[in-house]
Amino acid sequence: MPDVEDPVALLPHRPPFRFVDRVVTLEPGHAIEATYLVTGEEAFLAGHFPGNPVFPGVIQLEALAQAGAIAVLADERYAGKLPLFGGVEGVRFRRLVRPGDELTLRVELERLSARGGWGQARATVADERCCEARLFFALA
Q: Which of 13, 18, 30, 48 is catalytic?
């Protein structure tokens, strides 16, 4: 694993487009559990929806992808690579996510190669499922 104090720093993303606050558990190249607190200060919530802010499902997918990217980048074989979305399968949104909710992001990597891989992802709030998907990524 690359020598970093905070695994979130492995991400090339920076605020306002970083949706992982903290890594809870990490098995480089295998699995991750991380969190993101929806503060309500996210600029896009002003328009999604005015007076009724809902954290977008596509951003939930992005948060899961970012968590998965940390698990990939923590593996020394992929240090310095750029994981990019290649596709998603079986996406399901099951619960609204609102300001004040803390997303728990879990990703288990199914397959990794020099060119990319797949991961099974699930976001929850207080153990309630919000978003599930199988993520495909390419490594640049």
A: 48
